[in-house]
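Troubleshooting log. The previous run stalled partway through. Resubmitting the same two chains, unchanged.
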Amino acid sequence: MKVSTAKALGWDALYQVLDNSVFRILAVLTALPILTTFLFGFREHEIVFLFGLERWTYDGVLGFLSGLTMQSPGNVADAQGTTIAALLALVFDEIVGKFGVLFCIAATAFFVPRMIEKGAADILFHKPISRFSLYLARYCSGLLFIGILSFVLVAGMDLGLLLVSGYHDPGIFFASLQLIYVFGLIYSVCMLIGIVTRSTVASILLTVLFFMFNGCVHQLWTQFERRDSSRDAILAAAVARGEDTESGPNEDEIQRATEEDHIVFRVFQATLKTLHYTLPKTTDAPIIASKLRRSIDHPFYIDRDSDLAMFVLPSGWEEAPADRIEAPFASAPLEHGFGTARLALSHRESESHFQLWRRPSITQEVTVGDRTIRRNENAAPTAAGVEDELEERDDISDLDRKPLRFGENSKGEPVSGARRVSWTQNTSEGARWRVLALFRSGKEFMYTAFLDAPDASVGEELFDSLSVAMALDVGNDNTWYSKQLSLTAPLKFNLLFSIGSSVVFTALMLALGWWRLTRIEF
Amino acid sequence: MNAAESLIAIHDLQKTYPGRWFRKGFQALRGVSFDVGRGSIFGLLGPNGAGKTTLIKVLMGLAPSWEGQATIFGLSAGDPRARRRIGFLPEAHRLPGYLTGIQVLRLYAMYSGRSRPWVDERMPGWLETVDMQRDAHRKVREYSKGMQQRIGLAQALIHEPELVFLDEPTDGVDPVGRAMIRTVVQELRDKGTTVFINSHLLMEVEQICDRVVIMSKGRIIREGTVKELTPSTGWVEFRLTSVPEDLDRLLAAFEMPWKRTEEGFAIDCDRALQNEVIDRLRASSVAIDSIARRKLTLEESFIDLVTEKAR
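Second attempt completed without errors. Output:
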């Protein structure tokens, strides 16, 4: 194609977008969230309206926003960042990510039917441009439509946050890519419908139906996968419990976990799987954007081997010199030990200390009936070993062991099986409150986080702030799927497969549309 | 005309529109053959449903599957290299409403491979030619039908094609606009551009076309120059200063059919007899204003052909 022809197609796309009245309406609507970032200042301890006209604390706001987005705030450790992250998730994942994309589909659905209308087609398709180029140009027009709007929205909000709240997150621009990505996947279907039916109304209605159906398929598939995953976990736990007791594994539990579903149910699940693998994974887009945003964060500390990170160093803490690092208790005769020290922090005001240790995690393969389960080391028995060790000591009191909720590493992979053991210990400096948390990051490493504080109340507060900073306790049930998605995960949870299969689907839709277009007799 | 001189060469062209589901297809072209020479104005005529528009669409690459032979510039019809050298004004065209007149001309010329500076340099001249300077910056959707036709004509010509297809070019255009289009077409021929016109307005075709093809029901029923298609009728029309009272007596002697007209009479006669009539009138002191040998108009010829074919 000649350069001048390509330029003409580009200009044509731009003129078509800018002349669109729905585009203008959406541009005005885009100004609303931008305006919000200029009207509300998200400061460190409060939210300020119109430079001080009204002030609110963060209490309640966080819960409200989290509830709206049904998501955990992620890696942000402070209230300001958490609130902004939740606000951005609300705007990009919920409002714009769903309704905005549908509006854009409705606004651009006429591009193809109008192009092939009698009269319009003759004057366009006689030009020495291939039908594929013209078809692709209309697709690019659609992408340009949402690209301009989403970029203005993101850039405007970023500017507002920077000027009024003093907050800047370059990762926010991934939200624009997220919207273009979702639109691009859906718009290929809209164009195919447009070329087959030659009707704008049919294109809009059928595309919206497809968008909803696609989302339902994905959600249902996720629920099934989660159920299967928890079955495996129950099985592994039953086997583990069996190994710990003389009576052996609980056969009832194993039978329930390995019981086959009804044939109808299995056929339904197989159909769902086929559809899931075939259709574009639009619901993965917010997760991908969130992981991309996280990937360009610069955490205070990151372990590149496992991606365990501490994003923000909580106030009052400072990094301690390496020579201050010593084992939590030198005589610990744990089977596998704590490994090597990775990070040491000290809190001068309260005279508290924090240490992070790492060692390779242990993996075993267990066969149950005809199934082989790969069992990773669980923090629970290790924590129990620590507890047993501590119970035998005279200088220990108030020994307590409890689970921690799951969190994520810097790539959004689960930090799993976390357990904490806390106790009060008499030392030469007097009674000290100590807490030790064991958890896995990735599948290869077992970590031990150790905190030494003057008393329980100070220690709990400091441990909480550090846990939040390490994203150890911010996970919830709604983030199960996002934790499974990663570059290194098996195919069904693999990010590259998600993107690749979606792009292949889009390319197929475009190819079908082009094939249909080449056969039209104008 | 040999194939080398032909800009368009069509031989036994057939085109059938496929039927939907179980319905039978429709054969729009049934073995059409003709050539169009370089630098001529070629007219394509025919009643509705004759296959004229289908023929143009095949040549433009808009109707992809056809049988037979159809070449433009020696390239198969629809070849992009040929389309680059063609200008086309379709019938009942719809230019994009979101573009202004200037944007239409610029983008459509760029689609044909012309650079933006090249187009912008020639833009004022073409806007002036089609008398659209004042409205060039308005959106096409605000244009009247005639204005759309003028801009459409300019878009077909601005990239300076060697061959121009005009499908009903004067449709919706006022008489002044029609005259402008006729002038433009004649100027194109003078510059060596070949013009292929499909029109229902036979008067215009008669005025400007060098060669004409008449189609009916997918076939060519007559082909030739305008002169060949508008033969003399044998009747001679006499316009008299004043009609004498004894005209019946004067003409009865010739024993040929004749009839009175508003300003004289018309008589079916050859040249020799025509001179005798003149002598007889002059001898009777009848003043003659004009004498004209009456030819068949293209319209009459067309109607005769089409109705004869229909019978």
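Takeaways: Confidence is low (pLDDT under 50) at residues 72-77, 473-477 of chain A. Residues 200-244 of chain A form the longest helix (45 residues).
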